[in-house]
Amino acid sequence: MSLWSTYGLAVFAVLAVVGWWFARRGEDAAAVRALAVPVVVVLAYGVDALVKLAVREDRPCQSLRVQTLETCPAPGDWSFPSNHAAIAAAAAVALLFVSRRLGAVAAVAALAMTVSRVWVGAHYPHDVLAGVLVSGLVALTAMLVLRRRSPSVARSIGSGHLSRLLSAS
């Protein structure tokens, strides 16, 4: 559980690359959505980080003085909302716009990430729930906007040096 909690976010990066790889074989607009996944995740993480700075909630290991499976972060490394849960949820939501299958795999992995962060004592349950809600809404909004505009974005990218990112040929 500690390994997943610490290193599991790498799975979402792999899923994003796989999504892009297969999306290049289809229409350019699908490849644009796949390329947007990491951008959307960074955007959601940024919003999550701003909420974290505004709330400034201590972690369970600091406020409850209990032993946890992971080393307790230094004071000032706030608990609410969970960055890990935010990244995982944003990736899952964004990947659903690329591939339902990859999005479903990412959703299961995101659920495992949220459980693991509570399990190891890094977060309270409401921390991971808030991370999922905040970043999920950011990712959903961003991907809905992009879905409408992806054909025009694809035309813009396709006419420049980045055109190789859009198709397998």
- Helix count from the secondary structure assignment: 7
Helix content: over 70%
- Average pLDDT, rounded to a whole number, is 84
Q: Give unreliable regions as ranges.
A: none
Measured between the Cα atoms of the first and last residue, the distance is 41 Å
Shape category: elongated
Q: Quote the beta fraction.
A: under 5%
Structural class: mainly alpha
By oligomeric state, this entry counts as single chain
The number of strands is 0
Q: In angstroms, what is the radius of gyration?
A: 17 Å
Q: What are the secondary-structure elements, in order, as H or E?
A: HHHHHHH
Taking the sheet with the most strands, its summary is: none
Which terms summarize this structure?
single chain, about 170 residues, mainly alpha, 7 helices
Characterization of the model:
- By secondary structure, the chain is mainly alpha-helical.
- Helices cover 72% and strands 0% of the residues.
- It has helices at residues 2-7, 9-23, 28-55, 60-63, 83-96, 100-119, 125-158.
- The longest helix has 34 residues, at 125-158.
- The protein starts with a helix and ends in an 11-residue tail after the last helix.
- The model has no long low-confidence stretch (mean pLDDT 84).
